[in-house]
Amino acid sequence: MAARESGRIKDEYQKRVLDEAARQRRQIKALEALEQDNFHDDPHADLVMSKKVPKFQETLDNRGGRKKKTKSAEYYKQRFRKTFDQLVFEELNVNPDPPNYASAQAPPSRFPERQFCAVCGFPSNYTCIPCGARYCSMKCLGTHLDTRCLKWTA
Fold first, then answer.
1. 82 Cβ partners below 8 Å, 6+ apart?
2. Is there a contact between 145 and 135 (Cβ–Cβ < 8 Å)?
3. Where are the alpha helices (DSSP H) in 3-72?
4. Pfam families recorded for this chain (predicted)?
5. For 134, which DSSP code?
6. How far apart are CA 47 and CA 24, in angstroms?
7. Which of 19, 48, 73, 94 is 20 to 30 Å from 143 by CA-CA measure?
8. What share of the chain is helix, strand, coil (3-state, %, to 5)?
9. What pTM, to 2 d.p., does this model score?
10. Where do the domains of the chain lie?
């Protein structure tokens, strides 16, 4: 007769625990993936509406006479929006002398670094043993283990 084995102990042997260098590589890779996702411009920015679509509000307002529609300043703010990199580059060209964004520095904080939950963003007190991510509650730990913990490591 075979001895029974605890499922919890068996699962513990299967978990990988990453060292600090592997955790840093994983964190950098995740940040690069987020930057790739965030960099793209809006694909619908240059979308032109079809002229065949009826304009109900315009016909109710005008009652026969056509009024030229003017574009607000908000339209141009959205249409010609600049990225953060473009704004920093522009500032350095306009005002190369300090103080500017590139020359701004602050001393290190006197307070310890705050730790936040990787799932919900609340302050966290606990750390995942395999990957080192922070979590604040059992619910967040469950979400982390189901969806994030060591899923996309290479």
1. 90
2. no
3. 7-14, 20-39, 56-62
4. zf-HIT
5. E
6. 41
7. 19
8. 40, 5, 55
9. 0.42
10. 114-153
Give the residue-averaged pLDDT of 62-85. Answer: 71
Angstrom CA distances, 113 to 109, 116, 123, stand at: 8, 10, 11
| DSSP collapsed to 3 states, 68-134 | CCCCCHHHHHHHCCCCHHHHHHHHHHHCCCCCCCCCCCCCCCCCCCCCECCCCCCECCEECCCCCCE
In percent, the amount of the chain with pLDDT more than 70 equals 67
Token pair for 66: 């056509």
Dump strand ranges (E) for the chain: 126-127, 134-135
What type of residue is 29? Answer: K
Residues 6+ apart with CB under 8 A from 124: 115, 116, 117, 118, 134, 135, 136, 140
Chain length of the chain: 154
Token pair listed for 144: 């982390």
What is the 8-class DSSP label of residue 81?
Answer: -
When pLDDT is averaged across residues 28-57 and rounded to a whole number, the result is 71
- Per DSSP, 137 falls in state S
Give the integer Cα–Cα distance in Å for 106 and 88: 18
91: enclosing H helix or E strand? helix 84-94
